Amino acid sequence: MEIGVVTLFPALFEAYSEVGMVRKAMQQQQLALNTVNPRDYATDTHRTVDDRPFGGGPGMVMKVEPLQAAIKACKQTTPNGPVIYLSPQGQRFDQAMAESLAEQASMVLVCGRYEGIDERLIEMDIDREVSVGDYVLSGGETAAMCVIDAVSRLLPGVLGDAESVQQDSFTADGLLDHPHYTRPESVAGRDVPEVLLSGDHQRIRQWRRQQALTRTQERRPDLLADANIDEQDRAFLKKIRLEKIRLEKARLEKARLDK
Ligand code: 9WO
Predict the structure, then answer these.
(1) Ligand 1 centroid to 83 CA: how many Å?
(2) What is the CATH number of the domain that holds 233?
(3) Distance (Å, rounded) from C-alpha 87 to C-alpha 117?
(4) CA 17, CA 30: separation in Å to the nearest integer?
(5) Ligand 1: centre distance to CA 161 (Å)
(6) Do 42 and 110 share a structural domain?
(7) Which strands form 128-131's sheet, in the order they lie side by side?
(8) Which of 54, 124, 158, 227 lies 20 to 30 Å from 215 when distance is taken between CA atoms?
(9) Total count of domains within the chain
(10) CA 82 to CA 155: how far, in whole Å?
């Protein structure tokens, strides 16, 4: 996959592409990153890329011409891929979107700065707006890195057997991950759950599944609606819900008697 990035800060992407899965994907030639700086397409002596907002107010807006020229230059190497603008107004990025973007041969990620980009540029040159979450950043760069990171690890051959996407409970079944432990067996009096030391792989698999289910129900119950869970999983979730209610009732009863 070829990813073009339009950014006033290409150095951020150079640093990011030197580490981890992104570096691995590039070494394996599964990923190519190409940054284009709108400042290099500004035509005035001061290389201006921003201007005051029509209608007044604080801050600056990214000018159309340098940004448009940069996007055009970027599309030379990524002709058919979508042009994506990272903004809080966009469709929410998630694992399913990462999977569908990973199937593309190319894409262009446009990173805004200041108060944003001229709306007419969005109308003319942006195919879709994508948000990585409901917060305001100082620019789109870190959001673009989230997209690059999530997508690169899905490219063919990038993850080894050890980190297989199939093993990842979120990717496989839409559940949160189970907890992880490594040596030593005891840390400040906290022991690794006995089951993980048992060598009983059937029991370990079941425990991890139940941990993933419990955490998803407790922390992100919204994910259960689309999760890939079977009758046994549902029965377990019902059991822990009932257990929680029973404990709460016992607690209330105790409080009543203590009064
Ligand atoms: C600035 C601002 C100032 C006052 C009131 C509201 C405001 N919103 C913004 C704003 O959205 N600035 C953006 C900064 C302009 C475009 C790039 N920036 C950005 C992208 N911030 N956050 C994102 C982003 C992108 C993707 N997913 C989450 C957040």
Answers:
(1) 18
(2) 1.10.1270.20
(3) 10
(4) 13
(5) 38
(6) yes
(7) 32-36, 2-6, 106-110, 83-92, 128-131
(8) 158
(9) 2
(10) 17
Task: Give residue 129's domain range.
Answer: 2-152
Q: What is the dihedral of CA 247, 249, 252, 253, to 10 degrees?
A: -110
* 118 and 9 inside one domain: yes
Whether residue 189 has pLDDT greater than 90: yes
- For 53, other C-beta atoms within 10 Å of its C-beta total 15
Ligand 1 site residues (CB inside 6 A) read: 86-88, 112, 115-116, 131-133, 136-137, 139-140, 143
Q: DSSP letters along 4-51, please?
A: EEE-S-HHHHHHHTTSHHHHHHHHTTS-EEEEE-GGGG--STT---EE
- How many residues would you count in the chain? 259
- Name which residue sits closest to atom 9 of ligand 1, judged by CA: 115
pLDDT tens, residue by residue, 73-103? 999 988 889 999 999 999 999 999 999 999 9
CA dist 46 and 203 (Å) reads 67
| The model's pTM | 0.94
Tell me: pLDDT of 159 over 80: yes
Q: Decide if pLDDT at 165 tops 80.
A: no
Residue 61, H or E segment:
strand 61-62
What residues act catalytically?
Answer: 88, 115, 153, 168
pLDDT in tens, 215-257: 999 999 999 999 999 999 999 999 999 999 999 999 999 999 9
169 within domain boundaries: no
